[in-house]
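Entry for the shared binder. Reason: the reviewer on the internal report wants the predicted structure included alongside the sequence.
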Amino acid sequence: MSKQTYSVCFCCRRRFKLALAEAPPEIKTLFDTYSENDLMSPSQLQRFLFHVQKQEKATIEDAQAIIDSLKHFHRKGLNLESFFKYLFSDTNLPILPSLGVHHDMTLPLSHYFIYTGHNSYLTGNQLSSDCSDVPIINALKRGVRVIELDIWPNASKDNVDVLHGRTFTTPVELIRCLGAIKEHAFDASEYPVVITLEDHLTPDLQAKVAEMVAQTFGDMLFSPSTESPKEFPSPESLKNRIIISTKPPKEYLEAKEIKEKGDDSQASGNEEAWGKEFPSMKHVTIDFKDNKMDEEDLNDEEDSDESDKSHHNEAPEYRSLIAIHAGKPKGGITEWLKVDPDKVRRLSLSEQHLEKAAITLGKDIVRFTQRNILRVYPKSTRITSSNYNPLIGWMHGAQMVAFNMQGYGRPLWLMHGMFKANGGCGYVKKPDYLVKTGPNNEVFDPKAKLPVKTTLKVTVYMGEGWYYDFKHTHFDQYSPPDFYTRVGIAGVADDNVMKKTKTIEDNWLPTWNEVFEFPLTAPELALLRIEVHEYDISEKDDFGGQTVLPVWELRSGIRAVPLYSHKGEKYNSVKLLMRFEFY
């Protein structure tokens, strides 16, 4: 057992023993139950996999393969040390990587949550950062399937740039962004990439864009057979295809000076580095008067009223590119959410307007999203590229919950967690109750009180890896870290909760052995949140790792749970040993 020394002052030092990772008591008990003479044979390991890990299809060959992978410990079976090593290994993850894409991908696009970016070209804040193809590439490599580009005339009005209009962001050429999408669209997933265009172009530049898009993507580009489809095609039918979504063209309007309604930079500066905790969705009290649009929606040029468009100057070749038409009918929110039986479309709402609409029109939103696509985007005051709680969109069936992917924090962790599901392909099938109607044509009511469907029991045993991934003074200058774990659920309002373990002082290998239970009314929308923090009595607690896991894909049993940085990057060594049980 080695020791670690911390300097308290120039003449005083503190020494701490560094223990080796040791199996918690329950793990030792399970080993004793499924072993004989301190050795777990292939048949005994198979029984453990069946009864504890709930791997009902596990075979003797599967058990032997695990033993063979650890045969430098013992050739005939597992001793306690190798059994513990197996449980903490990357072959024992909470979501099975080999599961791959397993949802039915033959349904219309409106039946899926889709991994969606907002202002995908920005490298930083919304007001003054650089525009680049790099964040687009990063998003595609992560599996994002919807890329948003704001297209404007360049300075000389003879070409097209991508930038956040009416701000100080530096532009990037559209052709560069299109090239990056073509090269990396299917790095992480073969399912379709949707490019949403926010168009601020003259008809001649629209024609130029049409030519660029056609030449760049060629046969990859999906060309709709009709301008007003009655149903969207399926992800399966659109594999390796690029889809264009925007409003039908209208006459170009010169840009006006932007009027920002506020700045969230001061608020975010006072929050913890990993982002503030989510407000409860149980007591939303936002005024909703006369179904009026807020200023932000009035300024949303992407979805301006189609009925007022003048088409005599538009570029027909540009219009023919559009596979998913965006737009708002005349009138207020009630008119926007009306379902046309003869055609489908995309509607965009700001996060604020969705929250307002959800108070009185929740079921109308659900009904709209059964056939049509709803895109939700961050409010304009999120200058620092922060995000919002995505569950408000998902629980109402919104397919495109658009996020600033270049940021970080708790909302983005939820987004990453949701799209770990279904093999990380960027499309997650919505729960049946969000896409089906009842015998009397009724739809799911997001505000209804639901019965508990299942209870998730979570045991937090221990953690390891910080000693290898962090400097020994990273968390505390004078002693080893004092870790605690927060575990909870993000989901519908009645399922939202966070709990925490006790704090283990001065230990790089904290062992908690604590059990938490989470009754779930909508497990199909529940995300398991896991965070580790280091207690600091004098300052804010330090961040020690996080992950978010889709509850409906969790494997029962004792699992090794890798943790990620606040930016969503996987640590090399940091993991928790946890157990998941459903009843």
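Summary line for the report: The two ends are 41 Å apart (CA to CA).
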